[in-house]
Amino acid sequence: MLLKNRLFTPGPTPLLPAAQNAMAAFAAHHRTADFKALFTRVLTDMKDFIGTSNDVLVIASSGTGAMEGSVANLTSPGDRVLVLTAGKFGERWRDLAKAYGCQVDLVEKPYGETFSLDEVKAKLTPETKAVYVQATESSTGTRHDVQGIAKLVRANGDDTLFIVDAITGLGTTHIDVDGWGIDVIIGGSQKALMIPPGLAYCAISERAWKRMDSTKNPRYYFDFRKERKSNAKGETAFTPATSLWAALGAALDFVRQMGGGDLGAGRKALVDNAELAAEMTRAGVAALGMKLFTSSPGAALTPVVSPAGLDSGKIVKEFRESFSAVVANGQGDMKGKLFRIAHIGYYDFLDTIGILAALEHVLATVTDKPVEYGTAVRAAQEVFARSRTRELAGVSGGKN
Ligand SMILES: *Cc1c(COP(=O)(O)O)cnc(C)c1O
Are the C-beta atoms of 271 and 278 separated by less than 8 Å? Predict the structure, then answer.
């Protein structure tokens, strides 16, 4: 059959056509009234997308740039910080904090697990200057309890900042940034925002802005205060990725339409969409007798353990060769052991059903176990039908 290239990876994710068109059409210089208008509108909309009243920065870099900035701006050499890590991205926090000379306390769990709140509480001290965590650990598909951890950090006092890498969490997870007291929340353009890689964004609390006045670590390109000062004049400190800003404007309009004209409602609808796709995918995978890699799956992606004795690379390769569907292998030590199906952003019913139908064929091809066609699809259909019944009865959680 003809093949369409489709991404089922936890970033980059499928692109929104309206955003691609907006990018291609945009040619304004960044120091013009046209760009300024776009810039100001997007920064305001980003607050609604994130769900915060804190100032938001959008920077030309991959997501890791905002992670690095959240260490460089908020710490001084020798500062005691707590990193919660259970995967490749948690390790990135650890390595960044070490690179900036912090004294790093760790709550470390095996890949696929999450932290107990008691362990986190035990590692918090009056000297802890900052706590770093992921909302969703994309390398394992695990959702961490951001709300529970936020409560502990806030109880530790105003001297402890709470920084959340929600690069795959934003747009797939309900997060009350201001209500829970998150000081910095970080996202990336190539995830739920449905546009290409190249922009990192973050929302920063007043408590965190104030910290930057006394911290001593070096910073230049990722100097958040410099960027904020320029933003107040409707400008960026350096040349912005103008075409990506145009794409972002179109993507935010799309999310607003999902919410019937209300961007906050659109964000919730986008999260509910990911939740439903994830629930359908989990049901399909379970019906095929396969196991999840995590006991705490998020809605961003579904991590599936490869059947015993089978390198997951074979599954990934078969998806690509037979269906031109790109799913992700495990990373690092997890390579060969699992594969990851993402449902982040521009991702719908037919994508969800399609990848499960393809999975049935992939398994039939790469294993000698018989596969009854329709098993995964049927389970997902039933989840979808139940959610529709709820929605038609007006009891959907998705609309408020
Ligand atoms: C994608 C991702 C990142 C960012 O990686 P970049 O390649 O720098 O964009 C960071 N953390 C998580 C949890 C991610 O999923």
Answer: no
**pTM for this structure?**
0.97
Tokens representing 207 are 């408590």
pLDDT of 292 > 80? The answer is yes
Residues 231 and 281 in one domain: no
pLDDT by residue (tens digit) across 37-55?
999 999 999 999 999 999 9
Whether pLDDT at 397 is above 70: no
Same-domain status, 133 and 172:
yes
The angle that helices 349-366 and 375-392 make with each other, rounded to 10 degrees, is 160
Question: The sheet that has 301-305: what strands, in order across it?
Answer: 301-305, 338-342, 328-329
User: Ligand 1 within 6 A of 90 CB?
Assistant: no
224 and 269 in a common domain: no
Q: Could you check whether the bond before residue 12 is cis, i.e. omega within 30 degrees of 0?
A: yes
Q: What is the rounded CA–CA span in Å between residue 7 and residue 14?
A: 6
Mutation to probe ligand 1, out of 168, 186, 195 (largest number of atoms < 8 A from CB) = 168
What value does the mean pLDDT of the chain take?
97
User: Domain range spanning residue 119?
Assistant: 17-258
